[in-house]
């Protein structure tokens, strides 16, 4: 399989741009927002590129626009160029793998935006591209290590790179769990309903058995009376 990591890290001093299949870029809203996600680019391309600062790289999302559409937009006087989003890669963005509706992708945060918000890039199609996702995620982790240590990514120990990715994905899981709100009053109400549902049939059964005992008593007395010998005249 073609390795994105080998493409990215083929040149020690000038890393080549690395990309993954086209996808959709979403903006993830912070907890409490009425809308959980907003589509930023319906057709997008995710890549890594070096900056003009040593040992620093950017995660870049380009809006994919065909030539005809691009020409129409350029002719529009009110058009504002918003065809790219760039994020400085570091451990603080928490770049992690994710899935949405059975499609593979990535998610990360922007430190300058509200806590709990972020971005999600979901690749088109539902084909199995696990290896490709892992290679790209590891490439981003190497960039984060390079900036953190201010050293060449080629010096990065594999264990430390894997630890960066693992920590980001663990933090992402904790964030998702913390966003799940459980109402204690609703739990108590559910427990009461469950208890009532289990006790009511028992009470009904007890009452039914009691009624059966009472109704059989007269019949037993009548039977006993019929067996008594007749009194002499």
How are the SSEs placed, and which strands pair?
Layout: H1 4-8, E1 18-19, E2 23-28, E3 37-50, E4 57-63, H2 67-75, E5 84-88, E6 96-100, E7 103-108, E8 118-123, H3 130-149, H4 158-178, H5 184-227
Antiparallel strand pairs: 1-3, 2-3, 2-8, 3-4, 4-5, 6-7, 7-8
Helix pairs in contact: 3-4
Characterization of the model:
The chain is α+β, with helices and mostly antiparallel strands and 233 residues long. The chain has helices at residues 4-8, 67-75, 130-149, 158-178, 184-227, and strands at 18-19, 23-28, 37-50, 57-63, 84-88, 96-100, 103-108, 118-123. The longest helix is centred in the last third of the chain and has 44 residues, at 184-227. The radius of gyration is 34 Å and the shape is globular. The termini are far apart. Mean pLDDT is 76; it is low at 1-16 and 219-229.
Major sheet size, sense and barrel closure: 8 strands, antiparallel
Q: Into which percent range does the helicity of residues fall?
A: 40-55%
Low-confidence stretches: 1-16, 219-229
What is the ordering of alpha helices and beta strands? HEEEEHEEEEHHH
Tell me the distance between the termini. Answer: 114 Å
Amount of beta strand = 15-25%
- Care to count the β-strands? 8
Shape: globular
Q: What quaternary form is this?
A: single chain
CA-atom Rg in angstroms: 34 Å
Content-based structural category: alpha+beta
Give the mean pLDDT: 76
Helical run tally = 5
């Amino acid at each position: 399989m073609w390795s994105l990591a080998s493409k990215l890290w083929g040149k020690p001093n000038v890393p080549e741009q690395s990309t993954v299949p086209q996808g959709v870029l979403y903006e993830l809203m912070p907890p409490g927002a009425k809308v959980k996600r907003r589509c930023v680019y319906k057709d997008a391309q995710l890549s890594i590129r070096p900056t003009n600062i040593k040992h620093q790289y950017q995660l870049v999302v380009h809006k994919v626009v065909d030539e005809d559409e691009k020409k129409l937009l350029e002719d529009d006087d009110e058009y504002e160029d918003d065809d790219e989003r760039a994020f400085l890669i570091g451990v603080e963005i928490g770049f992690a793998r994710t899935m949405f509706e059975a499609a593979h992708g990535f998610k990360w945060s922007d430190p300058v935006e509200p806590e709990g918000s972020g971005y999600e890039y979901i690749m088109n199609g539902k084909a199995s591209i696990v290896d490709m996702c892992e290679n790209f995620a590891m490439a981003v982790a190497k960039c984060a290590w390079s900036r953190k240590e201010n050293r060449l990514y080629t010096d990065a120990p594999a264990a430390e790179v894997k630890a960066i990715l693992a920590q980001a994905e663990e933090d992402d899981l904790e964030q998702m769990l913390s966003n799940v709100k459980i109402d204690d009053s609703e739990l108590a109400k559910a427990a009461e309903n469950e208890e009532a549902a289990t006790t009511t049939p028992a009470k009904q059964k007890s009452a039914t058995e009691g009624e059966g005992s009472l109704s059989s008593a007269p019949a037993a007395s009548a039977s006993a009376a019929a067996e008594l010998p007749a009194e002499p005249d």
